[in-house]
UniProtKB/TrEMBL annotation:
It comes from Plectosphaerella cucumerina. This is Uncharacterized protein. The lineage of its organism: Eukaryota, Fungi, Dikarya, Ascomycota, Pezizomycotina. Residues 56-144 are annotated as: Disordered. Residues 112-130 have a biased composition (Low complexity).
């Protein structure tokens, strides 16, 4: 034991159990047997320096100051040994069983996670709202107390420190969601924090992101404070982009943050502008991106998630850098899944590119379910997970064209520019004017030779968006996608109604196919849209948003029948696609598809839906 540490311990004159001392530039020292002054059971003494690499030898005495502006902080802390809680006793003295931890997992539930059978979970007269309301809550993001003792690399106000804390309590699970089934989360590593702590521009980006997240969780629109801060941040980025030394990775990362932030607050014009700039930058700096990692993750999040929000084509090419995590599935299962998807979609006349995209989604979802059901035995590489996730979603958005008509793109939400803000000097950074944001009705679906293709693609994008947790979501949620879905489905319903009664196998010159061929896929698509619309109303943080679900219910009534009893007459084949891409992952609970369909139809009959 070093002399300084021994002297510090000897001077304490208190029980020696669990002493943690941080020594500047010192390596970790473990002792087999330390001072044992107390009469309690010996717990050991360890001296740990969390700043120095392992193997460094201390050459300096620790400072007596408990904090140092802009430098390290040396903390001497006594901590009590962790005690195993004893079972509490009831009034009769009988020990009671301790409650299990209520901390929720960041992993989607699978059928094997539930012990309650569907017969026990739902009564025969359950409403759709009752069934959906039983959904397991969204995974909680770990939110520890604000760091009071951490040393930052730059002067930070208390408000700035809090926003950095908000960032680190949310972003790891947003950038690498479902980390319970990943080998590790790159955004939770010490190197991730140190990289941010070394660069002032990235730290400003982190603080701005924390402001947006904090505002969303409080149910508040962007304030004048955020407006001014982001405007100055934009000015810093502009100066970096105008420099003659080229564009650094840190600057690219900050532009990604600007694009993501623009999408988050509904400024779609700003998102398009940032993505055009990123496309030019990445064309020039492509070699700097080949190592993948967090920067590539952020680029794809800005590109693919933004494109999904507005139903447009991604701006950036998707260069694959990692193997599919779905390769962990046995080859026989992969082949069977691909064959099952093709058997459902080919009779509806969908193009091979669309079938391949949906097959990729089915394999990816099957992999997540398998990893979740393994209880930690199967872990996925985080970079491969991210690569395949965004690859699957980008393919659904790209082929065979945009989902939204380019002549009617989603318009930015109304903004209110604060008087006297530095926008004129630094660039635009809007604030939201109102809390209630209805779905943007100005968007129109892109034309398609086979109208069933956009229905399947939109349902697939909605499915993967709802499947993977993202808290908080963008200000406008699923509004654009659901608006496109309702209009596309409305067109399909109009064509079907012209046929009169259920047409059976009769052919009509309306661009559609036989009812029997369409039924499995269309029931799944309508059910996904109905459930996502319901979820969207409950996930919004910014106020009350109401999505129209009647068109999806009418779709189900047409393909199933007007009475709840008609559900029992459906063949297993009619619900086969609901088995391939089931709704249990969206609702994070055990779910019987027939029960849910009966409840939706029953609500319609009772005038509840």
């Amino acid at each position: 034991m070093c002399f300084v540490c021994a002297q510090a311990v000897a001077s304490l004159r208190v029980p020696m159990d669990h002493i943690n001392i941080t020594v500047q530039d010192g390596a970790m020292v473990s002792t087999k047997r330390g001072f044992q002054v107390s009469k309690t059971k010996y717990q050991g003494i360890r001296f740990v320096n969390t700043y120095a690499p392992e193997g460094m030898v201390s050459t300096k005495k620790p400072s007596k100051s408990s904090s140092c502006q802009g430098g390290m902080q040396h903390c001497f802390r006594l901590s009590k040994p962790t005690e195993t809680p004893k079972a509490a006793a009831d009034i009769n003295g009988t020990p009671r069983q301790l409650k299990k931890s209520t901390r929720r997992s960041n992993t989607p539930n699978t059928p094997s996670d539930q012990s309650t059978s569907s017969d026990d979970a739902f009564s025969s007269d359950s409403s759709a709202t009752t069934i959906l309301s039983d959904r397991t809550p969204s995974p909680d993001t770990f939110r520890p107390d604000v760091w009071d003792t951490h040393s930052f690399g730059f002067p930070m106000t208390p408000r700035g420190k809090k926003m950095v804390h908000v960032y680190f309590s949310s972003i790891p699970s947003k950038m690498y969601p479902l980390d319970d089934i990943l080998t590790y989360n790159p955004a939770r590593t010490p190197s991730f924090f140190e990289r941010i702590n070394r660069n002032l521009i990235i730290m400003r980006s982190v603080t701005g992101t924390g402001l947006l997240i904090d505002s969303a969780r409080r149910g508040q629109p962007c304030s004048a404070e955020i407006l001014d801060y982001m405007a100055r941040f934009y000015g810093m980025i502009n100066l970096e982009l105008q420099g003659s030394k080229g564009v650094s990775k840190e600057t690219i990362e900050c532009v990604c943050s600007m694009a993501i932030g623009a999408t988050h607050i509904g400024q779609y014009d700003h998102w398009r502008l940032h993505m055009k700039g990123l496309r030019q930058i990445t064309d020039l700096e492509s070699d700097a991106l080949r190592d993948g990692g967090y920067l590539m993750n952020k680029l794809r999040r800005a590109d693919v998630k933004g494109a999904a929000t507005v139903g447009e084509l991604p701006f950036l090419p998707h260069m694959r850098l990692h193997d599919n995590v779905s390769n962990v599935l046995p080859l026989a299962i992969r082949k069977k899944t691909a064959q099952s998807v093709e058997a459902m979609l080919a009779p509806c006349g969908l193009q091979p590119a669309v079938i391949d995209s949906v097959t990729g989604l089915a394999l990816f979802v099957r992999t997540l379910k398998t990893a979740s059901a393994s209880r930690g035995k199967l872990r996925l590489d985080p970079h491969g997970f991210i690569d395949e996730w965004y690859w699957v979603e980008s393919q659904l958005l790209r082929h065979p064209g945009p989902l939204c008509d380019p002549d009617t793109p989603a318009q930015s939400l109304q903004v209110n520019i604060a008087e006297g803000s530095p926008m004129g000097e630094f660039g635009k950074a809007p604030t939201i004017k109102t809390l209630h944001m209805p779905a943007p009705l100005n968007v129109e679906p892109a034309s398609a030779e086979n109208i069933l293709e956009p229905v399947v693609r939109l349902a697939s994008v909605l499915y993967i968006e709802a499947l993977i947790p993202d808290d908080p979501r963008t200000l406008n949620g699923y509004a654009v996608l659901l608006t496109l879905m309702s209009k596309t489905m409305g067109d399909v319903m109009n064509r079907l109604r012209r046929r009169g009664a259920i047409a059976g196998d009769r052919r009509f010159d309306d661009g559609l196919f036989e009812i029997a061929a369409m039924r499995p896929v269309m029931i799944w698509a309508a059910l996904v849209a109905y459930v996502v619309a319901w979820l969207g109303e409950r996930e919004v943080h910014w106020g009350s948003v109401r999505y129209e679900r009647a068109v999806y219910r009418d779709y189900l009534l047409y393909f199933i029948g007007p009475e709840a009893e008609d559900v029992s007459r459906l063949r297993d084949l009619d619900l086969a696609f609901c088995e391939i891409l089931d709704l249990q992952g969206l609702l994070r609970k055990k779910l019987d598809t027939r029960e849910l369909l009966q409840a939706i139809i029953r609500d319609h009959v009772d005038g509840l839906g």
